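Archive transcription. Copying these from loose printouts into the bound notebook so they stop getting lost. Printout 1 of 2:
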Amino acid sequence: MRAGAGSDTIIATFYKTTPAMVVVERANRTRPAFQVRAASGARYEGQDIMFWDARGEALATWSAVELKCKRR
C-alpha cells in the first residue's frame, strides 16, 4: 500500500506473524506496528505510529501527522 507524494509517501509492508505486523516506511524512516483488536478492518500500533486498514483504504498517524491512502 502506498500513499501521498514526497515526504508524505508511505509504504506499508505486511507480515504474517503472530501477532500480525506491518512495517510502515516514510521519508527513509521505518516504524514496525503490531495488530491490535479493532471493531472493523485491521489496526496496527507501534511506537509513534498507528496504521488502520479497512476496505482498501488506510489511515496512518505518524508523529501526530495523519495520512490517508488507497491501495495501488
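Printout 2 of 2:
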Amino acid sequence: MDLKLLRTLVDYSPETGLFFWKPRPELMFSAPRHAKAWNSRYAGLRADRPGNVAGYLRLTLFDRKYYAHRVAWALSNGEVPDADLHIDHINKDKTDNRAANLRCVSASVNHRNSKRQANNKSGVTGVCWIPDRAKWLAYARVNRRHKHLGYYDSMEEAAHARLAFSKDNGFSSLHGDST
C-alpha cells in the first residue's frame, strides 16, 4: 500500500470515515479519452464498497483489494500498519471507518473487543453451565489460553466474576455484546 498513491486516488474524511474517488490525471491512462471516461464515470463517487461476507468495506485499487479500515488508518496516521497488527473498530461497527473509531492493536487485544459467540447458551460471555458439578463456570480466554475464574452457584455470581476479570484485564466494555 503506497500512501502517496492512495492520497492521489482517494479522498478520505477522518470525521465521516468515507472514501471518494478523486479525478485521476491523464498520465495514469494510455490515452486522454480514457482519463476523461474514467473521471466522468467515477470521480466524486464512493470508493469503498461492501467487500466480503464478514461485513468489512473494501477499496479496489488497480485490481487489488484493500480493507477500508486499514486504508483509513494509513491515511489518518501517515503509516501503513504492519501485517501482523489489527485495525480494530472500537464500536464494533465494521462499516464505521472514522479515524476516532479505529485503533491499531495486536490480535490478542483485538479479541478483547469481540462480540458474543453465536453458540453461547448462557447469554454471558465467559460463563457456562457445568452439569457434572451443577455449577456455573466463569472463564476467560487470554493469549489463546483459557483462564479458569471459578465455579459459582448462580449465573449472576459467575457473570460478576467474569465482568470483574474483564475490567481488570483491559477488555472492552462492549466485549461479549450480542451486536
